[in-house]
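Subgroup meeting minutes
Present: P.N., E.W., G.H.
Scribe: E.W.

1. P.N. recapped why we're keeping a running log of single-chain structure predictions: easier to compare across weeks, and new members can see raw inputs and outputs side by side.
2. G.H. added today's entry (266 aa).
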Amino acid sequence: MLIQSTFSAKGAPHAIVSLGKPLEAGAPHVIWAHGWGQDHRAFQALAVSLERAAHHTLIDFPGFGQSPVPPETGHGGIWDTADYADAVAEWLGTLPRGKRIWVGHSFGGRVGLRLAARHPDVLDGMVLVGSHGLKPIRSLMARLKIFLRVRTFKALKLLERLGVDVSARKAKYGSADYRNAGGMRPVFVKVIGEDQSEAIKAIRIPVRIICGALDDQAPPEMSERMGRLIPGATVSILPGLDHYTVLSDGGPQIAHTVAKLLEGQG
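Output recorded in log:
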């Protein structure tokens, strides 16, 4: 049975959905953390498939799903992944302690990495799926294209301040996530500039990384580099899957990995 509720941490309400075993001292607990632009439903089917194995919490991060945009109380005002991680750690500190496994896709992976690095005692394992968290490695040509796009965009903003209508041209710039971010755009801009390369070297829990071979948003190269930086981490690249089909067609692999960690065999 799905149970909807909320918790508040760092001054931000978090909508959550819970299912599975009762959450009591010693009970295993899986926390499912969605990607940017999604909500708890991204992982709901997988959580249901493991319902008997643990207590499950599916989070709507502040600014997504049923959770309002976070207040400007983060580091420098606008929230970053450290603020999201600190809020989760605050909430977890109020709950009975059993084995805890974090499962994060994309942005949820970013938050999980930050959580495990900043609060080393709150988790016992982590599964990262198409996770961000490192700066992408780009070719010289790719860097040049980005530089030119940024300069052009800044020029358009200057023309806009001078009264020129450039809305049609501006709409062509930025990723789909950036264009659709709405009130979360300041958070998005702050988060995508982060590089956790140094911080994640301190993670000491079992980390299992899963990535689609065709992922062009969090490419396999990033997952492999992440695996080399985190002590003891393993990386699985799933052929034929991209950033989103890894959640559906790669679901059995994700569920198997979570189950193994719960059993202590991961």
